[in-house]
Amino acid sequence: MNxxxxxxxxxxxxxxxxxxxxxxxxGAWVLTSNGFSLESALASPPETTAEILYRVYSEVESDIFWxxxxxxxxxxxxxxxxxKFRSKGTPDVIETLLKKPSDVDRIDLTKIRDDxxxxxxxxxxxxxxxxAAGSHPVxxxxxxxxxxxxxxxxxxxxxxxIYRDSEAVRHILDFTSELYLAYTEPYIENGVEIMLVAExxxxxxxxxxxxxxxxxxxxxxxxxxxxxxxxxxxxxxICGNIENRLDLLADAGAKFVSVDYKVSLKKARAxxxxxxxxxxxxxxxxxxxxxxxxxxxxxxxxxxxxxGDGAGFILMPGCDLPPSTPVENVRAMIRTGRAHVYHQxxxxx
Length: 349
Hints:
This protein is α/β, with parallel strands linked by helices. It has helices at residues 3-11, 27-32, 38-43, 46-60, 74-78, 116-132, 145-153, 155-164, 166-189, 209-229, 246-250, 265-272, 284-289, 293-307, 327-339, 342-348; strands at residues 65-66, 82-84, 92-95, 138-143, 194-198, 233-238, 256-259, 277-282, 313-317. It has a single domain, classed as TIM Barrel. The strands form two sheets. Strands 1-4-5-6-7-8-9 form a seven-stranded parallel sheet. Strands 2-3 form a two-stranded antiparallel ribbon. Helix 9 (166-189) packs parallel to helix 10 and helix 14 (293-307) runs parallel beside helix 15 (327-339). Mean pLDDT is 94; it is low at 343-349.
């Protein structure tokens, strides 16, 4: 089976002839390891960035290629927010754009496609899809509606208004759902197949299960439903411990759920088995960045074992790779995944 077949089967909860394995996002890691910051990549010809992404993901043999990852906050700059680039890593939002919830009504989403930096990212995606030419599925990760709401309005304001003005929060989330869809539509038009909604603010470390179910989940479902209508594969990653809401995600409408290292893969298998594909979950810092290749291989083997023999599991880091992650560790992860064949694992059991 080739990479598209393996990933398609995993998402469809069908058997694969080996363990699916992929880098998670990794845009800053790819560019930093090739002497580029995210800011300098935006100033470079799109052909250069697309070639670097294609070459690195090909060399490490990731089953999924990721386009223009790490640029999540660019869209906030495009609609009038203030962002600041780092020398390494992803840019930061340095000031909230919304002073009150109704401010969303004055934001013009048509500005997104006119933003020069975003147009560059769209072109990078088009070129990467063309280079992959069916050999690998191409994926995109961008902030989802709940995290966008926190960045635009301020996470503390968002959490406070959940209690004091729930309708205002829903108004913002309606807007950020539309913002996500408006921003990502050109990527889908360019052939990007997998749209991963990144939601660190919806973490179990930040909001309760009740608030997750009443506020974040309806926004996710709106996005997933819209992506499905566009024939796009909807996926989601939520940072932190989300074990108390795995059952909610199993029925949310995504094809794939990526879990953090804080989540037990055994519990994820129990919640997701036969319902939705899932992936994870090596610690991106302690394991992927700081361990030896041998230690990475052991951690990956443990993840595969914990995820069990059922279909639908993709071996991945538990979150985005730090920019300084050694390439040898990424190769160790990929090799470990590719070495595990399902019938061999079942025979050993």
